[in-house]
């Protein structure tokens, strides 16, 4: 794996609180995800999965360690870049368990909003949105309001939104939880296809046994520590 690109974390730790109520949610976590790769992050409730995604997404500040994104050091025992909002907006896509679409914008504008906020012209932002909606097989609903879509359609729109600014990294927290197994597997096929098409590094937190076989690599997280699952047994992963 090229050490320079993708996402790399070394010795990442996160402690919530202080004193005798402190919780060590992450303990010296190491992880690398290459462009075009989709990795799974699994583990029991309270293990630290969401905490890790939030640190990776610069939503919360780690306690110590090092993170690089696209070869740039973004955290090294402290943030190394001044503007975390711009980092989040332009370089990280988030997909949540619930789609959180904006109810008063149509499907196209839900996807086009982030590129517009990033300063892209409206026409180009909408063209990009439509291209993604086509890739996700939901372009026929481009003018609909979110409330008029099925759950699976809303989730596909939220994936399009996560891809809209061509982020090098997508962080997904339980993206298939509300879906039946056929749709959950379809979402994983889409994420794998998007990863290779746009060379995005994708990290998917999941409890969902149905989708775990779709990952070529899985990190297990337990009590704040992460372990990469041995390669064999995943050899047949799609
Ligand atoms: N804001 C917070 N303040 C204090 N402790 C927290 C906070 N957020 C999470 N924790 C604790 O950190 C640990 C890891 O929580 P986290 O949300 O990362 O777990 P998780 O693996 O995502 O669990 P789940 O599968 O239930 O979503 C837990 O012990 C949790 O109680
Ligand atoms: Mg969680």
Summarize the structure.
With 238 residues, this protein is an alpha/beta fold.
Task: Please explain how this structure is put together.
The chain is of the alpha/beta class and 238 residues long. It has a single domain, classed as P-loop containing nucleotide triphosphate hydrolases (Rossmann fold, 3-Layer(aba) Sandwich). Helices cover 30% and strands 26% of the residues. It contains six helices and ten strands. It has helices spanning 49-56, 84-91, 107-117, 122-135, 151-163, 181-198, and strands at 7-16, 23-33, 38-42, 64-69, 72-76, 92-95, 169-173, 201-205, 217-222, 225-228. Strands 6-7-8-3-9-10 form a six-stranded mixed β-sheet, with helices on both faces. Helix 3 (107-117) runs parallel beside helix 5 (151-163) and helix 4 (122-135) crosses helix 5. The two termini are 20 Å apart. 42% of the residues are buried. The model has no long low-confidence stretch (mean pLDDT 91). The structure holds adenosine-5'-triphosphate and magnesium ion (MG). Adenosine-5'-triphosphate (ATP) is lined by residues 16-17, 23, 25, 43, 45-51.
């Amino acid at each position: 794996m090229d050490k320079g690109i993708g996402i790399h974390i070394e010795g990442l730790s996160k402690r919530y609180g202080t004193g005798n109520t402190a919780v060590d949610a992450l303990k010296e976590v190491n992880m690398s995800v290459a462009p075009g790769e989709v990795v799974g992050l699994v583990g029991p409730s309270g293990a630290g999965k969401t905490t890790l995604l939030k640190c990776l997404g610069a939503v919360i500040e780690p306690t110590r360690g090092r993170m690089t994104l696209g070869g740039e050091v973004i955290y090294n025992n402290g943030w190394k870049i001044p503007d975390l909002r711009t980092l989040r907006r332009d370089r990280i896509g988030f997909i949540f368990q619930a789609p959180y679409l904006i109810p008063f914008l149509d499907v196209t504008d839900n996807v086009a909003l982030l590129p517009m906020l990033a300063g892209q012209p409206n026409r180009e932002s909408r063209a990009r949105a439509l291209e993604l909606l086509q890739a996700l097989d939901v372009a026929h609903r481009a003018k609909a309001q979110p409330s008029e879509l099925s759950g699976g359609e809303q989730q596909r729109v939220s994936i399009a939104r996560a891809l809209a600014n061509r982020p090098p990294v997508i962080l997904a927290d339980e993206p298939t939880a509300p879906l039946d197994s056929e749709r959950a597997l379809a979402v994983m096929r889409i994420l794998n296809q998007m990863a290779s098409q746009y060379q995005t590094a994708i990290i998917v937190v999941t409890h969902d046994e149905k989708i775990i076989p779709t990952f070529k690599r899985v990190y297990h997280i337990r009590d704040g520590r992460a372990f990469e699952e041995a390669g064999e047994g995943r050899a047949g992963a799609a």
